[in-house]
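INPUT
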Amino acid sequence: MKIVVCVSHVPDTATRIKVGSDGKTIDPTGVTYIINPYDEYAVEEALKTKEKLSTGEVIVVTLGSENGKETIRKALAMGVDSGVLLKDDNQRDSFGIAKALAEEIKAQGSQLVFMGKQSVDYDNSIVGQLTAELLDFNCVTVCVKLEINGENIIAEREIEGGREIVETSLPAVITCQKGLNEPRYASLKGIMAAKKKTIEEKSAASYTPTSEVVGMYLPAGKQPGRIVGSDASAVPELVRLLKEEAKVI
Amino acid sequence: MANKILAVLEQREGIIKRSGFEAASTAAKLAKDLHTSAEAVVVGDAISNLNDISKYGIQKIFHLKNSGLANYSSSGYTEAINNLVKEANYDILILSNTALGKDLAPRLSIKLDAGCVVDCIKLNLSGNDLILTRPAYAGKALIDVKLLSNKKVITLRPNVFKAQVAESPAPAEIVVKEISGVNLKSKVTSFKKSEGKLDVAEADIIVSGGRGMKGPENFHLIEELAEALGAAVGASRAVVDAGWRPHSEQVGQTGKTVSPTLYVACGISGAIQHLAGMSSSKYIVAVNKDKDAPIFNVADYGITGDLFEIIPAFTNEIKKVKQ
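OUTPUT
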């Protein structure tokens, strides 16, 4: 079985965001880019699935500029067989990303696709569902447990207040949540081997944008409030403020 | 003028959720501004609070009914709602940004050739353009997005838009449509409730603990305060990564982004990933012994001191006030 895992190349979560001169995207100066944290669970699950089947291959796909290859290498070092970079130097909306991924998945003839439940830059959390719908695949989002038996899938997904058990079947897109597995570290051997693995470059499929970012700005900063005290004797005053001033209890 | 607006309401166990009424109320208000009308739809088996919709300025609600759709089915719900939208011709669909809404909205957007913007915290009309404001980078930045497509699908962050009761509500027309031959290629077969009573994503008050709690054995202090306040229990990434608390409680950039009315941070220093996920809370209380901790930069009220004394005193005081 050919398994595709889609990853994105995103600013480190510790990044302090500055708005770029275009007023629509971030200023990339000094920003460190990493593999999207949720995509690490996707890579791990793809590798685990292949190991369980003891056959098949895992292909990592990313969309973006040349820099995306760093993130592809990271996945290759974890054990993925080969990589594809769908090249586009321009920012795409979620639909544009899904369109390019769907075309590539179709071209690969893959029936099983993993990706993170959202990327930590735009936090859209919809690319998996869009991709599945474009391909007419089933889709389980925010997956925290997965069992695949032949064509059948039993998955658990995180929702408010608990987990839903979902039954579906291949072909499918699974979007992965923290807790699904413990992503492996790349071994030195893995890192060396990754250097010899191929990364194919293709131009990303064209699309018609459905949305446009017209502005980006920082939220109004909160003013530091009041220190009510330095021990338990301040508690009655704190509770009075919450009750009478903030009116929240 | 624009075609109608449809609010897609979420039900669990046959009860329409509060976030559903937030979507309904927002749809009604937007319809007024656009000089069009808003209707609502709910998919499920028996629904007990259909009549409540009248309060929120909606005149017509469709109940797409089938016993196989009592629980969520991404394929079944998508198909049922898509058929209704094609029949009755809606231009804007409004859902809640819940696990269900986030799963369903993008699927409908593909079926309808619509653009999709999720997790909106503000809707603004600029002429005839609908401008949607949503957080990015877990709330470190905000973006304004314009949908370029004719049909639009949006989801609203829960707790941000108010479910406003209309002034002189007329009873809504309830249209029950029995759906046959539902598509259950993908379906929810059961639900496992998590141990916590309330979920951070939906709670009005959250009490969170961080590394300052010193160990999982001390989290009963957080749980007791949460219970006294009627709050959900949250946690910082450090304590989730250490295995002290489940990931479902994690607040911050790789956990949940929350905006409750009151957020109480206990023993949380306030790493940038955490602040991004909770600084839009209406009121923030911080208890931390380090007076230079960044959490105090966003806190409305703070106590610098030993949380092992302060939290139990806080719990007792809340119990007293609530009696």
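end of record. Residues 205-322 of chain B form a domain with the Rossmann fold fold (CATH 3.40.50.1220).
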